[in-house]
Amino acid sequence: MTVSPTIGPGLTSRPQWRALRMHAERLAGRPLRELFAADPLRGERFAAEAAGLYLDYAKQRVDADVLRALRDLADAVGLRERIAAMFRGEHINATESRPALHVALRAPQDDVIEVDGVDVVADVHGVLARMSAFAERVRDGDWKGHDGRPIRAVVNIGIGGSDLGPVMAYEALRHYSRRDLAFRFVSNVDGTDFVEATRDLDPRETLFIVCSKTFTTLETLANAHAARAWTLAAYGGDASAVANHFVAVSTNAKEVARFGIDTANMFGFWDWVGGRYSMDSAVGLSTMLAIGPANFRDLLSGFRAMDEHFRSAPFEQNLPVLMGLLGVWNTNFLGLDSVAVLPYEQYLKRFPAYLQQLTMESNGKSVTRGGMRVDYATGPVYWGEPGTNGQHSFYQLIHQGTRGIACDFIGFCDALAPLGDQHDLLIANLFAQGEALAFGRTADEVRAEGTPEALVPHRVFEGNRPSSTILAQRLTPGTLGALVALYEHAVFVQGVIWDIDSFDQWGVELGKILAKTTAAQLASEDEPVLAHDSSTNALIRRYRSHRSPS
Ligand code: G6Q
Predict the structure, then answer these.
(1) Sign of CA dihedral 484, 490, 496, 500
(2) What's the pLDDT score for residue 513?
(3) I need a labelling partner for 97 at 20 to 30 A (CA). Which of 19, 201, 255, 385 fits?
(4) Active-site amino acid positions
(5) % of the chain exceeding 70 in pLDDT
(6) 352 within 8 A of 487, measured Cβ to Cβ
């Protein structure tokens, strides 16, 4: 079943949109200092909690009327119904005519979710059971390399959605991982990635997971072939070693078999799982190998808890809805075009990179689902680094630059690696940054500190920089699942408001074909006939004439 595009007035002509514009004008003269002064309970009232995550959005530049108006807009565009359509497995990915049903990946075993009339939950649990059995065998040393040695290293080969989730989850959950197994991730077609990842590994103790939904992705296949050659070289070219050292995660059994991997060692998923929404499918095999099946189940429970909350909680208390709507407010009414994601947790160091794909590949669109050019801003730029490192570099621009940047701070009450009082220091920095961004320092305050007059303008902080803070007890597999689902659904909420397809990626598809012609021209023995622009032609000629013979 296909969901029809929104019929009705364009987004910016809706009365709810116009009302929000008026609210933005009204609030322009009321900085956060004033909003806090006017409501002593703001810090407690502008907060919500679900699935173990506490969201403080009091430092966003909103008041109760703005929040109500944002919810009115959500109602007007039919958000509640669109959420239900996603959970029902409708073809909400209209341009690819398929569901976006990542919520089925973490549905309980007794649930029934149908895709085109067929229940998919049993299949999901079937694959999970096979993954668990395999993970146990590898972790117990029962799964052996070709000459009978146990596996000591696991290398995931994949790119984009088949890499960023696995790397992020491995780093995030390293505390729970088997320390006697090495985990590496190879994504880039740049040979350095493979060479450096395998430099200190023994091929006879290494297991490769070739992770590719389509199994046709240039980078992944190039690296998989390199891995095959590297492995077979250790066995005098004996191709039967592939069976012990390679497994596949894919939807494409034919190509997996063509590569030489036994499809008995393939873990499947489905076309209704988008790459960037796949870390909790078989794409998470490396995660399961690292943390074990029980922890992986906890990860899925965290996702599920957030899914249930998203599906059923009233919008006023609904974390993904609140985060999504606040993002719309910041993007479209305050003109902020970037979001800094700032985890005060070293284990989340790859979380900003993961979110970049989730958010920007999903909502980096400029036509509506119906194919009309939008006349409003859509997905903002996401970026970030773990705190406190960022404080010693780019925070300067956030505090005193001319651009408005919204910040998402993420922190935990308990440290996983406690060291003296360092966790308190870490979290003190998180809280202090949010406070400074919101309230700044006025010229009078700076003067009162005895600052020489000439320096006063340099030491003034305007403040009024919006941020949200997500605080959880500790980083567990379940917390990570809830956190990822929170962002997945917030992205969806924004896509619904902006009336765009958050689940296609035509820009990425373009990249997959663009390089093919050029690659043939670089490889050609004869001087190729070039029909690019003059700059590209010159670059190709220069590269061909300057590269050293291999
Ligand atoms: C994700 C994107 C993209 C994709 C990669 C890898 O949503 O579609 O990042 O995951 O291009 O694709 P394969 O898994 O098919 O190799």
Answers:
(1) negative
(2) 81
(3) 255
(4) 361, 392, 512
(5) 98
(6) no
Confidence of residue 9 (pLDDT cuts 50, 70, 90): low
Answer yes or no: is pLDDT of 3 > 90: no
DSSP 3-state helix, strand, coil percentages of the chain (rounded to 5)?
55, 10, 35
Q: Is the pLDDT of residue 5 over 50?
A: no
Among protein residues, the one whose CA lies closest to atom 8 of ligand 1? 275
Distance, in Å, from the CA atom of 306 to the CA atom of 320, rounded to the nearest integer, reads 9
Which two structure tokens, joined as six digits, stand for 422?
Answer: 């360092």
DSSP alpha helices (H): ranges in 332-455? 351-356, 362-363, 395-400, 422-439, 443-448
Three-state DSSP class for 458? helix
Best residue among 95, 157, 214, 267 to mutate for probing ligand 1, ranked by most atoms within 8 Å of CB: 214
What 3-state DSSP class applies to 266?
Answer: strand
What would the mean pLDDT of 239-259 be, rounded to a whole number? 97
Strands (E) located in 353-426: 381-383, 406-412
290-344 pLDDT, tens per residue? 999 999 999 999 999 999 999 999 999 999 999 999 999 999 999 999 999 999 9
Question: Residue 289 and residue 138: Cα distance in Å, rounded?
Answer: 7
Rounded to the nearest whole angstrom, what is the distance from the C-alpha of residue 348 to the centroid of ligand 1?
22
> Considering only CA atoms, which of 291, 287, 238 is closest in space to residue 260?
238
Over residues 347-354, the mean pLDDT reads: 98
User: Which strands form 266-268's sheet, in the order they lie side by side?
Assistant: 182-186, 153-157, 206-211, 246-250, 266-268
Q: What is the mean pLDDT of residues 51-70?
A: 98
3-state secondary structure of 143: coil
User: How confident is the model over 251-262, as pLDDT tens digits?
Assistant: 999 999 999 999
Residue 244 CB: number of other CB atoms within 10 A?
Answer: 20
| 3-class SS letters over 86-141 | HHCCCECEHHHCECCCHHHHHCCCCCCCEECCEECHHHHHHHHHHHHHHHHHHHHC
- CA 160 to ligand 1: nearest atom: 9
pLDDT of 427-469, one tens digit each?
A: 999 999 999 999 999 999 999 999 999 999 999 999 999 999 9
The protein residue whose alpha carbon is closest to atom 11 in ligand 1 is: 160
pTM, 2 dp: 0.97
Query: Which residues, 6+ apart, have CB-to-CB distance to 500 below 8 Å?
Result: 363, 365, 367, 368, 369, 374, 378
pLDDT value, residue 508:
86
- Distance between CA atoms of residues 173 and 279, nearest Å: 13
Cα 9 off chain centre by: 32
For atom 10 of ligand 1, the residue with the nearest CA is 161
**What's residue 448's pLDDT?**
97
**Cα torsion through 494, 499, 504, 508, rounded to 10:** -80
Owner of token pair 């390089």: 515
d(CA 305, CA 478): 9
